[in-house]
């Protein structure tokens, strides 16, 4: 899914979730979206609707069976496979995760899944993995 579709679909929920820790910033967002005093999540959703962008995962062809994989992959970045455990609201328990660097994006194989050569930043290990395997690293 293109990043701009992901932002359009997910941002209202992200704003609602993070509101307790980002109230001041969200007030600014709501004001910028011409909804001063309103909810940033609702103002953003209305803005996306006016642009004609998708507002639900199903609008971009994502089925419920992909939700877990999307959540896991959301923790990845293209340069470093690093699980970010802190958000604006923080976490009670922080578990240290391994950090990997994507060395090479390999050609898509017959099964249609892309593969990546990754290297551990903390160990002297390099291997080839699928996106699904990357999501389980740590």
Structure description:
There is one protein chain. The chain has helices at 3-32, 40-51, 67-73, 131-135, and strands spanning 80-82, 99-106, 115-120, 126-130. With 138 residues, it is of the alpha+beta class. The protein has two domains: 1-62, no CATH class; 77-138, no CATH class. Helix 1 (3-32) packs across helix 2 (40-51). The longest helix has 30 residues, at 3-32. The chain starts with a helix and ends with a helix.
SSE layout:
Blueprint: H1 3-32, H2 40-51, H3 67-73, E1 80-82, E2 99-106, E3 115-120, E4 126-130, H4 131-135
Helix pairs in contact: 1-2
Structure in a nutshell:
The protein is of the alpha+beta class and 138 residues long.
Keywords for this entry:
single chain, 138 residues, 4 helices, alpha+beta, four-stranded antiparallel β-sheet
């Amino acid at each position: 899914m293109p990043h701009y579709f992901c932002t359009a679909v997910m941002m209202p929920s992200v704003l609602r979730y993070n509101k307790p820790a980002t109230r001041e910033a969200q007030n600014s967002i709501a004001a910028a979206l011409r909804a001063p005093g309103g909810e940033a999540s609702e103002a953003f959703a209305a803005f996306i609707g006016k642009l004609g962008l998708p507002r639900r995962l199903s609008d971009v062809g994502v089925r419920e069976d992909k939700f877990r994989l999307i959540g896991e992959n959301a923790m990845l970045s293209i340069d470093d496979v690093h699980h970010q455990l802190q958000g604006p609201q923080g976490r009670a328990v922080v578990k240290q995760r391994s950090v990997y660097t994507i060395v090479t994006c390999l050609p898509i194989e017959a099964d249609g899944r892309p593969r990546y050569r990754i290297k551990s930043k903390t160990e002297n290990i390099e291997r080839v993995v699928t996106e699904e395997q990357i999501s389980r690293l740590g």
